[in-house]
Amino acid sequence: MGDITDAAAGNDPAPAIGAILMQIAVNPDGTITRPEVPLVPPSSAGGAAVSRDVPLDASLGTYLRLFLPNPAPATKLPIVLFFHGGGFVLFSSATVFYHAHCEAMAAAVPCLVASLHYRLAPEHRLPAAYDDAASALAWLLGGAAQADPWIAAHGDLSRCYVMGSSCGGNMAFFAGLRLRVDYSPSSAGAVRGLLLHQPYFGGEERTPSEARSDDDAMLPLEANDKLWSLALPEGADRDHEFCNLTKAMAPAALAGLPRCLVTGNRGDPLIDKGREFARWLAEQGGVEVVTRTEHEGSHAAELFVPERAHELFAAMREFMTAADGA
C-alpha cells in the first residue's frame, strides 16, 4: 500500500487519518495489508523529551515506550499510561505521530508517559488489546515500575493516570474497570483518573444517509465499519459491550470507576457518541466526569495541529491539578 508520510505532514489531519484508514486492505484469506506508516526509534538525543523502550511481555511482543521531559524537573512527575489510537488495527507507540505526540505531552503537561505497544486486530481480536492494557496496568501498579530507573528517579507512583485516544480511550475505560476487580483499594487509589480522549465507541452500523456530513472527510463510514468488523470477537455484532457499552453494560458495572476526563473536538464524527458516553457515566453510573468537548478541530487533530494539542494538554493539567488538590 502507499506511504502516507506526505499526508501526515500537513496541518489538516483529515486527509492524513482518512487516507490511512482507507488504505487498509482485507485480503481474500482474511488477513489484512496495512498502509505503510513511518516508525521511529526511542530517542536519547536533546529535545523536549527523551524516550526508551521497556519490555512488557516478550512472548507477545508488547512493550512500553517511556517519555521523560528533557531536562527532567526536580519534582516528581505524575505518570500517564497511554494507549494510542488506530481502531485496534493500526499504529504503535513507535508510529511517528504518536511518538511525537507523547514527546510533546511529556514536556508540556509535564508528566512521565508510558505508551503501550499492544497487539493489533485482526491477528489478535479483542479482548487481546484489553489484556495487554491490563498487563501494562499491572506493571504500573504491581511493583515492577518501581524498579525502572526513570520511574524511581522522576515518577510519582501515587499520581497515576490511565489515558487513551480513540480506540485507546475505549481501552482506558476498560482498564479502569479492572481496577476495583484486580487491585486493593490502596493500589487502585494510585490511579487518580481516566483521561478519555475522543473515545471510540459505537452502535449499529449507519447507512450513508444517516451519517454526519463530515464523516466522509474524517472517519469514512465504510472504514469505521471495517475497523469494528476486524476488531470485535468473531461472530460479535456492533451491540457487543466492547463497542456499544451504553446499551450492553449495566450502569452498576461502573461502581468505583475513577474520576474521568472526557475530551473531544466539535468536528469529530465521534463527538456525539463521546458526549453520550460522558452523560451515561455521570447520570447512570454516578461517576465524577469532567467534559471538554467544545474545542475546534476534527478527529486526531492534536496529532498534527499544535494548537489542538496545547488545548488537550491544558485540559489534562487542569484535571490533574484538581485531582492533586482533592
Automatic annotation (TrEMBL):
Does the record bear Zinc in its keywords?
Answer: no
Q: Which PANTHER family match?
A: ARYLACETAMIDE DEACETYLASE (PTHR23024), OS08G0547800 PROTEIN (PTHR23024:SF393)
The UniProt entry, under InterPro entries, shows: AB_hydrolase_3, AB_hydrolase_fold, Carboxylest/Gibb_receptor, Lipase_GDXG_HIS_AS
Family annotation (SUPFAM superfamilies): alpha/beta-Hydrolases (SSF53474)
Keywords on record: Hydrolase
Question: What Gene Ontology molecular-function terms does this entry list?
Answer: hydrolase activity
Which residues, if any, are the signal sequence?
A: none
Organism this protein belongs to? Urochloa decumbens
Q: What is this protein called?
A: Alpha/beta hydrolase fold-3 domain-containing protein
Q: Which residues form the Alpha/beta hydrolase fold-3 domain?
A: 80-300
**Family the entry assigns:** Belongs to the 'GDXG' lipolytic enzyme family.
Q: Name one Pfam family in it.
A: Abhydrolase_3
Q: Which PROSITE patterns match?
A: LIPASE_GDXG_HIS
